[in-house]
Amino acid sequence: MSESLDIVRTKADLRARVRYWRDQGLNVAFVPTMGALHEGHLTLVRAGLEMADRVVASVFVNPTQFGPNEDFSRYPRQEELDAALLAGAGCHLLYAPSVEEMYPPGFATTISVGGVSEGLCGDVRPGHFDGVATVVTKLLLQAQPHVALFGEKDWQQLAVIRRLVRDLDVPVDVAGVPTVREADGLAKSSRNAYLSASERAIAPVLYQVLNHIAEGLRQGGVAADLCAQGRARILEAGFISVDYLEARGADGLEPLERLDRPARILVAARLAGARLIDNLAVEPGHA
Ligand code: PAF
């Protein structure tokens, strides 16, 4: 059984709680989220419980990672339900700061990560990864956990966070946790809530296309050709547009032609009012 879930709203209270645990020799895991929690987030909490003695989650819908025409104001917010879900998963503490606590008047610093932030979501959502990098750096410095867990569904985000933690010598281990999927393969996402029943029926085509490209790459196919076919299939299924569908090197996210190293196929596509992203690992030599 979990202990009861306390909620703290200031960095001072968060630090005091984590310091208390650290002083007792306990390891602390941290799961940053934007709320609207689903099984994917709870899997992060459970993975945190395997790695550490205490798990802290944060819920903060970070305004700086949304573009002016994105879904910040309509992003689902459900703190009470999120707190209950976290408690049920065994989480020990919820950090739910206000926007003013995170960005007090006069706030003027941005963390910008080069290389892995460029291309893919970095092209389609200008400024997004600066917002993510800045808030994640702040959250890690505020919480000072031993390990921080992030979902692999946001593969490029994970690469950006790994890079900034290495580059800025942030004393934390970063753990990526595999994507949790619905029975039909659709990656769990808070944004799936935007889909109508008929859109929801179309959405799994993304995962099917990723698998098809992975198979083609394993058989020696050319990434650009396979991705062009995949793009056409996504549009035929009823998506409005495909922001990108690309095969990249798994760690550095460099473009690749054929499967000559561990790779990741990444996609972002718009289905009615929802922008869905997903990705799949593909390893050479497993034909
Ligand atoms: O993946 C998310 O939910 C967010 O980008 C994160 C890492 C919590 C930063 O706001």
Automatic annotation (TrEMBL):
Homodimer. It catalyses: (R)-pantoate + beta-alanine + ATP = (R)-pantothenate + AMP + diphosphate + H(+). The keyword Metal-binding does not apply. The active site is at residue 41. The reaction proceeds by a bi uni uni bi ping pong mechanism. Its EC number is 6.3.2.1. One of its GO terms (cellular component) is cytosol. The gene is panC. Pfam families: Pantoate_ligase. Catalyzes the condensation of pantoate with beta-alanine in an ATP-dependent reaction via a pantoyl-adenylate intermediate. This is Pantothenate synthetase. (R)-pantoate binds at residues 65, 157. Pathway: Cofactor biosynthesis; (R)-pantothenate biosynthesis; (R)-pantothenate from (R)-pantoate and beta-alanine: step 1/1. The lineage of its organism: Bacteria, Pseudomonadati, Pseudomonadota, Alphaproteobacteria, Rhodospirillales. GO terms for molecular function: ATP binding; pantoate-beta-alanine ligase activity. One of its GO terms (biological process) is pantothenate biosynthetic process.
